[in-house]
Amino acid sequence: MDYEAVIGLEVHVHLKTKTKAFCACSTEFGQEPNSQACPVCLGFPGSLPVLNKVALDYAIKVALALNCKVQEYTKFDRKNYFYPDLPKNYQISQYDLPLSKDGFLDIDTDDKTKHIRIRRVHLEEDAGKLIHQQEISLVDFNRTGIPLLEIVSEPDMNYPQEAYEYLTTLKSIIGYLDVSDCDMEKGSLRCDANISIRKTGSLELGIKTELKNMNSFKAVKDGLGFEISRQIELLSKGKSIIQDTRLWDAKSAKTFSMRTKEEAQDYRYFPDPDLPPFLISHKKIEEIKESIPELPQSKKIRFMKEYGLSEYDSKILVASKKDADYAEECFKDYPDENKKPVANWLIGPLASIANANNKTISEVEIPGGIQEFIKLIKLEQSGNISNLVAKSVFSESITNLVLSSEIIKNKNLFQISDSKNLDNLVDEVIKENIKSVDDYKNGKGNALMFLVGQVMRKSKGVANPKVVQEILRRRLSDG
Ligand code: ADP
Ligand code: MG
Ligand code: ZN
Known about the structure:
479 residues, alpha+beta, Arc Repressor Mutant, subunit A, 2 domains, nine-stranded mixed sheet, binds magnesium ion, binds zinc ion
């Protein structure tokens, strides 16, 4: 029997405000434990929360970028539960009147764009952080009250890869808005993945499980993959799925049940009496809408049209706004209408140097800057230097902080395209490789490439391979 998976994600992201959601404590990461807590975020009796205006603006910004309808009338509710990381014994969240709802996010799949509906985006506060040691557990309240955005998707994904793509796309958009780092390792993005299985073609939803404790997008994908196999195995044995919350264990690459639905608690939501309901004006929504920059999806399409790039190249270049801006700076300096050669350099040699140094492409320091970079690309494109030489000059230039044009001049690396200068090298190679010459004459086309390679080696990479190939062909057909 054929089964399909159904996946819905609940994502929490920290908003990058200077202060917490309802008090003036700093949100700075990595400070001395419990140095950023006050009576408000610790819930002392008599203290009163005040909504952080910037947190609200950021939340609205994300909601709009995710095509959600921002509600005019909204309010905060208390979600009540007891846990050591929650000093107030309730979390300020939003229940029945969330800030926004009914949006969508388009993601790329192998063959098409897929529309993933977003159920709601609402604002809440984070809890503290528990640090478990051998005999005891410690709690750090610095995180308590940091503004948190909850983004809930509809169960519209069917493959772990789609969940991965959803998270990548979401992170890219939020990065463009510059309102969160979305760093799973630092805990500024967390994801609960809901997953169920049903017979292919059925419209009914199966019983779901909820996965937690994944610390990377890849872990989300792996956890979902494991869970799909586990559920299909149970169902095909005629067993049923138990609705539970499961923890992903990266070491064993398995999920383990943490609690079942019966153990789930009733949060007894009620409106927070300290934070009266409020209205969001149309004007404010419009203002925030205006401040949203061109987002990655439209930028990708524009790059394809304007610069003649493939979808694949465009997508890589627009993933972060900083890199996309940098790419456009480079394109401006390159005279041809088609910017594909520049894109190749950005995605190829520059990106690999960036990766090796844990940087993004715009952060790599190229001696002489964009101008020198483009000069090098032009030399390579016009055939004045070979691609191989250009690449090694480029990396030497960055490592040793020397202009690439200096390296080319000092080492005399201009490509030899002049056949007179190549004749001697070709002569030598023909003499030294009689067997390959015979092979070629006997119809083995590959032998020619070998001979070209030998000439290239003798020239230390500066010969123009196209010209070498022409000379060899001519010489070998003369007999
Ligand atoms: P809960 O009440 O358990 O929190 P919700 O209906 O609020 O469940 O949905 C939470 C998340 O789970 C949403 O992202 C939703 O898309 C997803 N979800 C709900 N039902 C299913 C299902 N049967 N299979 C997969 N995902 C689901
Ligand atoms: Mg829920
Ligand atoms: Zn505080």
